[in-house]
Amino acid sequence: MPDKLAKISNILLWVMMSVSAVFIVMLFIDGSDSWISNSLIYTYILAIFATLVALGFGIHSIVMKFLINPKNAIINIAPVIGLIIIVIVAYNFSSGSAMKIPNYTEEISASTIKWTGTGLYVTYTLLILAVVSIIFVEISKFLKK
Predict the structure, then answer these.
(1) Residue-wise pLDDT tens digits, 52-64
(2) Same domain, 59 and 86
(3) Where is 44: in which H helix or E strand?
(4) Is the pLDDT of residue 34 over 70?
(5) What is the DSSP letter of 102?
(6) Residue finishing a domain among 68, 96, 120
């Protein structure tokens, strides 16, 4: 089964790379708006496909670990729960109030502003957590010596 799955994924990889190469060549040769929009649609399809595959394998891994050893599976779910908590807190902190942008006349919805603020707060929080964890690891290595 693993050999068959590897063969199928290898064929799928080469097909997607070939289609991507055709889009790139036609984009450079023609460069019309239709090729640009078709390339963007193809990019969206690939991004959605990659996201679904990554989520599928992640969910499969968590389910298999839960079936084998339920205690360790809870440890693997903890970061996901932590990320969900960070997103919820960031959403509650973000403001949905309209901004005045000079020379910009289009209306931005409150929902768009709120989710943009949420994304920024999540990014800041994860960046701070990454820096703190790097510092913590380095200090703990230094103290162990």
Answers:
(1) 988 888 888 878 8
(2) no
(3) helix 33-68
(4) yes
(5) T
(6) 68
Which domain, by its residues, includes 19? 1-68
Buried b (16+ CB within 10 A) or exposed e, 80-115: eeeeeebeeebbeebeeeeeeeeeeeeeeeeeebbe
Residue type, 15: V
Which of 45, 68, 91 is the last residue before a domain boundary? 68
Give the pTM: 0.60
Residues 6+ apart with CB under 8 A from 35: 23, 26, 27
Same domain, 81 and 49: no
Domain count, the chain: 2
Question: CA Rg, the chain, in Å?
Answer: 22
Flag whether pLDDT at 103 surpasses 90: no
Closest by Cα among 6, 40, 5 to 20: 40
41 and 8 together in one domain:
yes
Tokens 């960070």 correspond to what residue? Answer: 86
